[in-house]
């Protein structure tokens, strides 16, 4: 086995932090641990930037177009599933922005039961139902006004066109 095979790699995810009229848009999803709440979120796919990924994931999970306005932050968390022994560290790029209305003809992604708008107090009171500790952490950071320019994350052209590599 080469050193590259042994190199630890976090699982890269994106999340949308969306506030409207004092409520945050969350999803309720089926997980191996039961029904959980989360920000619209998902994995970074090949050949896309984190910003493109959060737009795609938000549409898939909420049926609403998302417009990122700022990078909230980059977060690390670790998840250990007792039953299987799975141990994953997630690196989350969280973006805040706005959503449009639900688009007709779309369906929620597999496993997503519904979307819901919750107040901060409701979110804080439901910590036992959060899929990740980052759900509340990102909202708390949003509440205190943390924002970074979108161009803080740069995606090189080689991500989209591997033939451009040297």
Automatic annotation (TrEMBL):
Residues 7-140 form the Nudix hydrolase domain. GO terms for molecular function: nucleoside diphosphate phosphatase activity; ribonucleoside triphosphate phosphatase activity; thiamine diphosphate phosphatase activity. Gene3D superfamilies: Nucleoside Triphosphate Pyrophosphohydrolase. Keywords: Hydrolase, Magnesium. Its EC number is 3.6.1.-. Belongs to the Nudix hydrolase family. NudJ subfamily. Monomer. This is Phosphatase NudJ.
């Amino acid at each position: 086995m080469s050193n590259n095979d042994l190199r630890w790699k976090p699982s890269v995810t994106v999340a949308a932090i969306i506030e409207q009229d004092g409520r945050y848009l969350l999803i309720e999803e089926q997980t191996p641990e039961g029904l959980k709440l989360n920000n619209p979120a998902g994995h970074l796919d090949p050949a896309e930037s984190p910003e493109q990924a959060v737009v795609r994931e938000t549409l898939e999970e909420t049926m609403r177009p998302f417009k990122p306005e700022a990078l909230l932050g980059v977060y690390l968390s670790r998840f250990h599933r007792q039953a299987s022994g799975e141990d994953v560290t997630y690196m989350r790029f969280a973006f805040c922005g706005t959503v449009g209305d639900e688009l007709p003809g779309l369906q929620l992604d597999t496993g997503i039961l519904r979307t819901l708008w919750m107040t901060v107090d409701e979110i804080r009171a439901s910590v036992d139902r959060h899929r990740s500790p980052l759900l509340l952490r990102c909202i708390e950071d949003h509440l205190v006004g943390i924002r970074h320019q979108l161009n803080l994350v740069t995606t090189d052209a080689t991500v989209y066109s591997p033939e451009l590599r040297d």
